[in-house]
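Notebook entry, structure prediction.
Reason for the run: the old model in the group folder had no record of what sequence produced it. Starting over properly, with the input documented here first.
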Amino acid sequence: MGFRNKVNRAAQTAFAALAVAGLAVAMGCSGGEEAETVSEATESQPTTTIDVGSEMDDELTYRVAIIETKFGDITIRFHEELAPKHTENFIELAEKGFYTGTTFHRVIPGFVIQGGDPLSKDQTQRERHGTGGPGYTIPAEIGARHVLGAVAAARLGDQANPQRRSSGSQFYICVAPTPMLDNQYSVFGQVVEGMDVAQKIAAVRRDPRDNPIEPVYMESVRIETRPMELP
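New structure, fully documented this time:
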């Protein structure tokens, strides 16, 4: 392995270690009883699975996802070492345009904003929002903590899903630290820019199912490769 590759791996591992250690911004968490689970709704789902590759580039780079909304952009850096399958799956869906036109269909101040359901593109079927996906699940990659700005995959509950496999597309962003979710869900990324945008989305008016009354669309989700910043 060349020097550049070793340095890149070391830098990515260091970033992953920070996530596991929970060394992100710490602040009081809230959400009450409604904030104790983040789940994919229980409408019948296909049971086929995906096995996504996890090879890393050998350059001194890392990848981010940029979610464009009417409130601004949210930039997510992937935990490529900790959750390679979730990383590759999200990137593949984004590059296909899967997320474009979906909404953040569940928003709870002091807890999370959740999106990524293809059914949320249809506002005449709001009662079904949160029940859709691409037709497969992803093996759990549980390890990183639910710090402020953590990005994790939604899933069905333990009774129906004892292996804690993740939804193929639905994900959530923590708008406050949520340690009660640690060791239960697969955290695969971290917001590095646009946390204020996520907080604005969390604050919009919502219906009794926590679905924004005025939809908040993902106008686009694009993937960028950025140079690694070394000390």
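Summary: The first strand starts at residue 61 and ends at 69.
The old model has been moved to the deprecated folder.
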